[in-house]
Fold this sequence. Notes:
Elements: E1 2-8, H1 15-23, E2 30-36, H2 43-48, E3 57-61, H3 67-75, E4 82-85, E5 91-92, H4 96-107, E6 111-119, E7 127-129, H5 141-149, E8 160-163, H6 164-169, H7 183-192, E9 196-207, H8 219-238, H9 242-245
Parallel strand pairs: 1-2, 1-4, 2-3, 6-9
Antiparallel strand pairs: 4-8, 5-9, 6-7, 6-8
Helix pairs in contact: 5-7, 7-8
Amino acid sequence: MVSIIIPVYNVEEYIEECLKSILAQTYKDIELLIVDDGSTDNSLGLIREYENKFKKIRIFTQQNKGVSEARNLALNYVSGEFVLYIDPDDFLEPNMIEKMVNKAEKYNSDITICGYYLYYSKDNANKIFTYGINENKTLSSLEVIDMMLNYKLQGQLWNKLFKKDLLINNNFKFEPGRYIQDIFPVFKMVLKSSNITFIDEPLYYYRQRMSSTVNKKSKKLAEDYFHAMYSIMNYVKEENIKAALNYGLLVINVPKPNQEIKKSIKIN
């Protein structure tokens, strides 16, 4: 079984497309854990309409605490062998979960990673991101860390299928109050993994909304990005990852989060 975790906050315009893409999956052994983070629109009402359409769905509500707290809450209730995090404004190719589970089971993968689209709209061309990795091999944690430190692989959650035991045994948590909250926890899980596999085709649609938090240029966003980078560097040093220290740690020269963010910095 795959446990799908979706944090929801004011996404009434998009949540149905997300849920319909999950209902349409060729892989049916799933449970859905949705946490409404104090939405003030009709997001929760729309979610309630789907309760009878999923065999296994749990809906949680909380006062607005942020996406980190929502995801942390849901992880306490997963019962599947695998965990997949999905953003509520995104959607999936119909065979995404089946392909990822088959890959994970074939190679006993701790983490399985697929390519994705940057989705702008039905009328606009979408950018495709893949990794050029041989799909018939497994990568070690240090090989994937090398990719992350050299910006060949991002630490986002939504295109990665995790073994539940990997997350539970390593106290997988997100830091509250951060815009950039997934890079460092994902980095730690990569380090703790034995086998990591790739599906080198886009299976996930990552919607690009100018109103979303990660698309707003702000001092808070820049500070949280630097916080994530410094957390990674400190963790690398604490864990004495000698092989990883040989790669791409140019971020060591960026200003500390509490220093003034230079106007020349481009915030992506």
